[in-house]
Amino acid sequence: MAGDFNLHHPLWDSHVPANHIRGNTKHLADWFLNNIHIDNDPDTPTRRGQPGQRDTIIDLIGFSGIYNGTFDPIAVRPDLNTGSDHYPITTTIHLLQNDADSALPDPPNLGHTLKPNKKEDWITAFQTVWEGLTITGNPIPSIHNPLQP
């Protein structure tokens, strides 16, 4: 699960005092505590504050227990910023590599399955979709096509 929740809570932002929790933030934090592991570092901002504002952590990345170990820790990447006040966040997803890994619990049925033996088919499918996209605004930097200063 990932998103810009635009909510402030000490569970994911160590600079938020407990007495500054507003609205439904407590309900969401309680749900996270019971269902989702938040992977954010509570001391690493995901949004750059405007003048007079502090930097905050409002873009959250989390996963349920069955995916523990499937993702590398997230990395907030100000170095990849293209002008937004929100920093890019990266991670790596590890797909099953061999039969020994099949002891992991089955993930929930989301209507799609990434099968290791179909890796090339998925890469081709994603590349086809990506190449067909029309992106407006600032281009997204990558290791294959970095932005030039």
Short description:
It comes from Sphagnurus paluster. One of its GO terms (molecular function) is catalytic activity. By secondary structure, this protein is α+β, with helices and mostly antiparallel strands.
Description of the structure:
The chain is α+β, with helices and mostly antiparallel strands and 149 residues long. The protein has one domain (2-109): Deoxyribonuclease I, Chain A. Helices cover 17% and strands 9% of the residues. The chain contains two helices and five strands, in the order βαββββα. The chain has helices at residues 25-35, 119-132; strands at residues 2-4, 37-38, 59-63, 75-76, 89-90. The strands form two sheets. A three-stranded antiparallel β-sheet has the order 1-3-2, covered by helices on one side. A two-stranded antiparallel sheet has the order 4-5. The model is unreliable at 139-149 (pLDDT under 50).
Describe the secondary-structure layout.
Layout (H helix, E strand, L loop, with lengths): L1 E3 L20 H11 L1 E2 L20 E5 L11 E2 L12 E2 L28 H14 L17
Antiparallel strand pairs: 1-3, 2-3, 4-5
Described by strand count, sense and barrel closure, the largest sheet is: 3 strands, antiparallel
Please tell me the total number of domains: 1
As a whole number of angstroms, the C-alpha radius of gyration is 18 Å
CATH architecture: 4-Layer Sandwich
Give the N-to-C terminal Cα separation: 33 Å
Can you tell me the CATH superfamily? Endonuclease/exonuclease/phosphatase
Q: Examine the coordinates and then state which fold CATH places here, giving the name of the CATH topology.
A: Deoxyribonuclease I, Chain A
Strand content: 5-15%
* Overall body shape: globular
Which residues sit in consecutive blocks of at least 5 with pLDDT less than 50? 139-149
Mean residue pLDDT: 78
Element pattern in H and E: EHEEEEH
Q: What's the helical proportion of residues?
A: 10-25%
Strand line-up of the largest beta sheet: 1-3-2
Strand tally, please? Answer: 5
Question: What's the CATH class, please?
Answer: Alpha Beta
